[in-house]
């Protein structure tokens, strides 16, 4: 079986590190913003403004990377998923979480494999069972869908053997299913991203305004000679 490091890619690792960094920065930003606003500390409000600006720039940069590197990301994701399918084993507790995520994807998007059910022909367990078993999460039968994960047995295989075309599974591959889902929900995704960006811009504007007010108050408090 593949080691955990083989189930990742440089781009996905970079994306994960970016998300971790943005999450930590967001926590720090919230703390600085609250502390600066309550105590009217200009330097903390300045740091709050800087953090918001960095997050906004990071989000724009991430969007550009995804847009211009989408083919590379698709190829890497394809390799990862095909490795997962090839080494899928319900008894492997080390990869249980990852396999359950993939089962969930196949169930929710009603798809099978990355490009289609044929991808599962590379799975050693299914091959050793003469293709008489198939992934339950791919099935279009209600009783199999309730199982949710692992392999289901094909009813009455001819001569004890079968092919993926004999399986009662969804014909659509998950690659096409994910792309279709993104197209169908593009408006919602763009709306959420725009809303977050507007909130961040408002936060930047308010922090600058508060800094100016604090500066004005400090100026008026200075005794005239």
UniProtKB/TrEMBL annotation:
Pfam families: Tetraspanin. Keywords: Membrane, Transmembrane, Transmembrane helix. It is found in: Membrane. Its main location: membrane. One of its GO terms (cellular component) is plasma membrane. Gene3D superfamilies: Tetraspanin (1.10.1450.10). The chain crosses the membrane at residues 16-38, 45-68, 188-211. It is a multi-pass membrane protein. CDD domains: CD37_CD82_like_LEL (cd03160). It comes from the Eukaryota. Belongs to the tetraspanin (TM4SF) family. PANTHER family: CD82 ANTIGEN, TETRASPANIN. This is Tetraspanin.
């Amino acid at each position: 079986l593949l080691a955990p490091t083989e189930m990742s890619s440089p781009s996905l690792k970079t994306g994960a590190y970016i998300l971790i960094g943005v999450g930590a920065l967001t926590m720090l930003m919230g703390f600085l913003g609250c502390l600066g606003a309550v105590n009217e500390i200009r330097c903390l409000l300045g740091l709050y403004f800087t953090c918001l600006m960095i997050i906004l720039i990071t989000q724009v940069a991430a969007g550009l990377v995804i847009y211009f590197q989408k083919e590379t990301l698709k190829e890497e994701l394809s390799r990862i998923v095909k490795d997962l399918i090839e080494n899928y084993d319900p008894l492997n507790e080390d990869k249980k979480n990852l396999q359950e995520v993939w089962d969930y994807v196949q169930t929710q998007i009603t798809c099978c494999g990355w490009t289609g059910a044929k991808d599962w022909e590379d799975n050693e367990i299914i091959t050793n069972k003469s293709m008489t078993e198939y992934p339950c999460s791919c099935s279009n039968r209600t009783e199999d869908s309730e199982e949710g994960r692992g392999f289901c047995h094909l009813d009455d295989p001819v001569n004890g053997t079968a092919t993926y075309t004999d399986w009662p599974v969804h014909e659509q591959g998950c690659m096409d299913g994910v792309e279709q889902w993104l197209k169908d929900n593009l408006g919602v995704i763009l709306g959420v991203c725009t809303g977050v960006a507007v909130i961040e811009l408002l936060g930047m504007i308010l922090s600058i305004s508060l800094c100016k007010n604090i500066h004005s108050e400090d100026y008026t408090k200075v005794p005239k000679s």
